[in-house]
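Quick one:
INPUT:
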C-alpha cells in the first residue's frame, strides 16, 4: 500500500536526516516544490491531452496527486505532538516538526489545486445532472476543500519568519485549528472509500488505526498534563 511505503520512507528520512532537514530546510522545501510543480504540470497536460505516464514514475505521480506523500509527512507532525517527549524519537521529530509540516503542506498543494479545478470544471455540472443526487461524492469534495483552505494559514504560519511576527498566544490559538484539519482529512478519506464501488478494507483499517491511535495518544497526553498541573496546584495549596 502506497501510504505504508510512504510512511516507511518518511520516517527513515526524518530520523536519519534530522540535522540535515533542520540545517538545510530550504533544500528539502525546494525538492518538495519541484515534486509539487511537476505533479501539477503533468495533471494539466493529462487533462488537456492524452499524455500518460508508465511504470514506477506513474505510481510516484499517483501517490503525489492523491496527497499520500503529504499525509505521510503530516502523520509525523501529528505524532510528534502526541508521543512521550522523553523518547528520543519524539525529541527528533519535535526538533523538525515545523519543517515537516511545511514539506507536507507543499506536497498537498497539487492535490488541493488540481481536484478543486476538476470539481469546478467537470464535477459540478455532472453532479447536478446526475440522479440520484451524489451526496457522498459532494460531501467528500466539500470537506476536502474546507480542509485545504484550513491548511493554508497553518502552512504559512509554520515559517519562522511569519511566526516571529505573531504573538505566541495568537500563534498557538491558530495552530489549534490543525486538530480540525486532521479530523477533516480523515473524514475526507473515509467518504472517498465509502463512495467507491467496493470498500477497500485495508485502506480503511490503515487510516483508522493511524488517526485513531493519534487521537487516543493525544487525548491521553492532554489528560495526563492536566492531572499533573492539578496535582502541582494541590501540593502548593
Amino acid at each position: 500500500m502506497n501510504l505504508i511505503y510512504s510512511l516507511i520512507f518518511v520516517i527513515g528520512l526524518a530520523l536519519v536526516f534530522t540535522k540535515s532537514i533542520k540545517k538545510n530546510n530550504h533544500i528539502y522545501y525546494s525538492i518538495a516544490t519541484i515534486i509539487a510543480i511537476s505533479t501539477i504540470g503533468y495533471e494539466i497536460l493529462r487533462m488537456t491531452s492524452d499524455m500518460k505516464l508508465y511504470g514506477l514514475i506513474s505510481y510516484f505521480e499517483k501517490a503525489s496527486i492523491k496527497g499520500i506523500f503529504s499525509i505521510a509527512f503530516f502523520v509525523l507532525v501529528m505524532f510528534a505532538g502526541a508521543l512521550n517527549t522523553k523518547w528520543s524519537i519524539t525529541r527528533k521529530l519535535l526538533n523538525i516538526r515545523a519543517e515537516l509540516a511545511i514539506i507536507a503542506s507543499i506536497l498537498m498543494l497539487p492535490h488541493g489545486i488540481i481536484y478543486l479545478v476538476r470539481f469546478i470544471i467537470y464535477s459540478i455540472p455532472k453532479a447536478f445532472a446526475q440522479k440520484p443526487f451524489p451526496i457522498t461524492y459532494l460531501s467528500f469534495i466539500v470537506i476536502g476543500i474546507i480542509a485545504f483552505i484550513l491548511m493554508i494559514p497553518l502552512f504559512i504560519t509554520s515559517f519562522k519568519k511569519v511566526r516571529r511576527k505573531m504573538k505566541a498566544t495568537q500563534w498557538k490559538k491558530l495552530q489549534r485549528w490543525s486538530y480540525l484539519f486532521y479530523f477533516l482529512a480523515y473524514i475526507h478519506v473515509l467518504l472517498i472509500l465509502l463512495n467507491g464501488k467496493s470498500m477497500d478494507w485495508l485502506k480503511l483499517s490503515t487510516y483508522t488505526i493511524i488517526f485513531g491511535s493519534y487521537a487516543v495518544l493525544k487525548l491521553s497526553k492532554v489528560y495526563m498534563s492536566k492531572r499533573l498541573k492539578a496535582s502541582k496546584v494541590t501540593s502548593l495549596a
